[in-house]
Amino acid sequence: MLNEVSMTTTLILLGGGWTVLSWAFCLALCMAAAKPLPPFESRAECLEPRRKTAEAINEDALFAR
Questions:
Q1: What sign results for the dihedral spanned by CA atoms 22, 28, 29, 30?
Q2: Which of 11, 36, 38, 50 is the most buried (most CB within 10 A)?
Q3: What burial class does residue 34 get, using C-beta atoms within 10 Å of its C-beta: 0-12 exposed, 13-18 middle, 19+ buried?
Q4: Which residues pair with residue 54 across a beta bridge?
Q5: pLDDT value at position 16?
Q6: Which residues contact 65 (CB under 8 A, 6 or more apart)?
Q7: Alpha helices in the chain (DSSP H)
Q8: Which residues contact 16 (CB under 8 A, 6 or more apart)?
């Protein structure tokens, strides 16, 4: 059967299959991204750093400890 199928037909079928699989994958990603986020309890300690990690020496440079 493979001897009867031309290379162009094979490439078209593989390209079409790849396109359909890519479309399905992108659709699944869009459906997953559309789900609402679970409720999140915000706490002040997770929004602010615990210690200072960098100091401004001047306007052009940072000193990291």
A1: positive
A2: 11
A3: exposed
A4: 64
A5: 97
A6: 52, 53, 54, 55
A7: 7-33, 44-47
A8: none
